[in-house]
Amino acid sequence: MSRERDKDGLYIAMISVHGLIRGHDLELGRDADTGGQTKYVVELTRALAKTDGIAGVDLFTRRVAAPGTQSGYAEPVEELDDGARIVRIDAGPADEYLPKEMLWDHLDSFVDNMLSFIRAASRVPDIVHSHYADAGYVGSRLAHFLGVPLVHTGHSLGRVKRRRLLATGLSSKQIDERYNMSRRIEAEEMTLASADRVITSTHQEIEEQYELYHHYEPDSMRVIPPGTDLVSFHPPEGNEWNTPIGGEIRRFLRDPDKPLILALSRPDPRKNIGALVDAYGGSTRLQELANLLIVAGNRDDIGDLDEGAREVLGDLLMGIDRHDLYGKVAYPKHHQSGEVPVIYRVASLSDGVFVNPALTEPFGLTLIEAAASGLPVVATEDGGPRDITGNCNNGVLVDPLDSDAIAAALVAMLADPQKRQTYADNGLKGVREHYSWEAHASRYLKMIRSLVDKTEVLERVPRGRRPMLHHDRAIFTDLDQNLLGDTSVLPRFVEVLRDNRKCAFFGIATGRRLDSALKALRRNGIPEPDVLITSGGTAIHYAPDLTADTFWAPHIDHGWTPHVVQRVLADLPGLELQPKAEQSRFKISYYYDPRIAPGIDEINRLMHQQDLAVNVTVSFGQFLDVLPIRASKGMALRYVADHWGIPLEHILVAGGSGADEDMMRGNTLAVVVANRHHEELSHLMDTERVYYAKQSHALGILEAIDHFDFFKTCTVPEEH
Q1: Whole-prediction pTM
Q2: What are phi and psi of 507, to 5 degrees?
Q3: End-to-end CA distance of the chain, in Å?
Q4: How far, in Å, CA of 651 to CA of 669, rounded?
């Protein structure tokens, strides 16, 4: 290792065990283990090695000589730059390329062989920095043995991953068997107990992910955003419209000389592209000022894409048609990964704006890339964009659920060229100060220098077990009449929820669509629920990032023929379809006039005659919903309870209309608040487990909590 540049500088041992790592032509996307983390650790190693005060950086990974992999992955040492190397360590059979889930039994060999390499090199690292859980296992053992500080970057956390996998319909047992999740989480706990510093990209990552762990130590956390490739992402050179992707964008537009509003993301419902189209389509002034460019992945045939992408792109095309935006919106079908920087520069050359309207945005890399390209931003107020705009002052934040606010922010920026340019200039400066690899390396060096010099010593506070991780009960409530009917009492209800979140999940079960429910929650300061059951029980989303339950939709789709349902009900008196905003894929909603409409029994008879197995509910005697036979609030609640392992006897449900009845029947505890003593539930009056509160709205729920003594026995299960 060449260390002439700074022999007295620090020597850093990076560890990233899994995947295929090399210094050139990274095979990103080759498999699940060779992705963003692979690129990150190589770029970080190079950036640190170029930094004054660093003698050298070795990136330790697993040596792979498997058939089907290129020979470079079997080389024990690969020189990167002056002072930077990749060192490949034997661990397990080198002739097999093992996925990370199968590496756990070989990690102790990795520790022993890495230690042998270090001893042979005659220099002990000043810092060990592990990446991901498997490297955390290795790094914590080495750091303890060598007596040096441990720095850790999680990249992805097991407890969060488990929640997302549960949303796909897998059971906890299946997740453990397939992903070795228990071993991963155990390794993460041990790593957090050992690490002197834990690096994250955003404050939200700390608050919503690391707080899930027993050994989360707030004083060990440091936010150091990853660096950005400022070689690829830079301001326009002037010829971008003449590129192939520039020509592809231009062909959509009637007046291509207008500024471009650029949105670039995956076709994921959480990216909220439909709201952007509605914001643009609903503002004549915005259409006068600019064209809209939406880059949402690649497609040959929308019908061949997964369900979520089909829904997003279908909504996009229908929105363009509904607002008659032809000639004003570009939505290219294809682009190469190398063309992404050019797309940003095309928008920047047009004096445009970058917009990110996502419902949730953990980091916001696209905002940094846009800023580096000379684009000001209008972005969601959720998550990472708060940090980015706070550091760079390069744009404004908006409520992603408020289309009018999105449009107003874009108009304000585009109508004021001086303001737009100021934001653009701030972004260029801010990215270099906060998000370049040089800035990252400088902040990193300052952090580790204090560890090596022992000027900052982490004093761990004994915390014991973190009971908040062992939710053994849950509260589910409807939204409108229960919580929103009297917002003056919400602060007290929210306080009780927060005081008891250590053992209780909080869920909303509502007839509203997801976007409408989120808007109401945020407007009234109600904390984001752990689970959102929306559209009458036909959609389920989980915190912290609104992960959709991808198993639930195909499950309830069984036998669902909405067009036939609408045809059967079309000519019935007393039924009128509600507006489109109240409809969803699995919910057909009508206004119901009981004076002239057939009774529910008659409607069900008509359905049976047409061989339609559906679930028909009436709420407050005036709203009728038709759902798939497998869908309801109660069935969605039981599905969630089963996946979370919460007994129904430990769930308190607050309801009050016919649509809530099957949540309240059976083994759940239930409350009907005073303002909702509706006749639809009068037959439950004598049911032992259903409590009729004397107080209204949220106060009625609090009354039921006291009645059932719901939190007094809130206990933490023993460790097994």
Answers
A1: 0.77
A2: -130, 150
A3: 47
A4: 6
Residue 243 in this model has a pLDDT that exceeds 80: yes
Give 504: exposed, middle or buried? Use CB within 10 Å, 0-12, 13-18, 19+.
Answer: buried
How many Cα neighbours within 13 Å face the side chain of 327? Answer: 4
The helix/strand/coil state of 304 is: helix
Whether 381 shows a pLDDT value over 60: the answer reads yes
Q: Beta-strand (E) ranges in 385-469?
A: 395-398
Cα–Cα dist 150/12, whole Å: 10
Structure tokens at 16: 């990233």
Q: What is the pLDDT of residues 254-294, one digit of tens each?
A: 999 999 999 999 888 888 999 999 999 999 999 999 999 99
> How long is the chain?
720
CA-based nearest residue to 589, from 513, 654, 655? 513
E strands within 642-700?
Answer: 651-655, 669-672, 690-692
Collect all residues with Cβ–Cβ distance below 8 Å to 543 and sequence separation of at least 6.
208, 528, 529, 530, 531
* Integer Cα distance of 60 and 76 in angstroms: 10
Within 10 angstroms of residue 271's Cβ, the number of other Cβ atoms is: 23
The CA-based dihedral angle spanning residues 187, 192, 198, 202, taken in that order and rounded to the nearest 10 degrees: 80
Secondary structure class of 144 (helix, strand, coil): helix
Question: Which residues are paired to 199 by β-bridges?
Answer: 153, 222
How does the average pLDDT of the chain come out, rounded?
A: 89
Q: Are 149 and 197 in contact (CB under 8 A)?
A: yes
- Contact indicator for 64, 36 with CB cutoff of 8 Å: no
What string of DSSP letters covers 466-507? -GGG---EEEEE-SIIIIIS-GGGHHHHHHHHHHTTTTEEEE
Among residues 380, 404, 379, 397, the alpha carbon closest in space to that of 282 is found at 404
Question: Is residue 329 classed as helix, strand or coil in its secondary structure?
Answer: strand
Q: 652 burial class (0-12, 13-18, 19+ CB within 10 angstroms)? A: buried
Strand order in the sheet with 329-330: 329-330, 291-295, 260-264, 353-356, 377-380, 395-398
Strand order across the 150-153 sheet:
77-81, 84-89, 54-62, 10-15, 127-131, 150-153, 197-200, 221-223
Crossing angle, helix 340-349 and helix 365-372, to 10 degrees? 60
The answer to whether the beta carbons of residues 490 and 522 sit under 8 Å apart is no
Instruction: List pLDDT tens digits, range 5-27.
Output: 456 799 999 999 999 999 998 88
Task: Give the span between the Cα atoms of 251 and 255, in whole angstroms.
Answer: 10
- The tokens describing 66, both together, are 């498997």
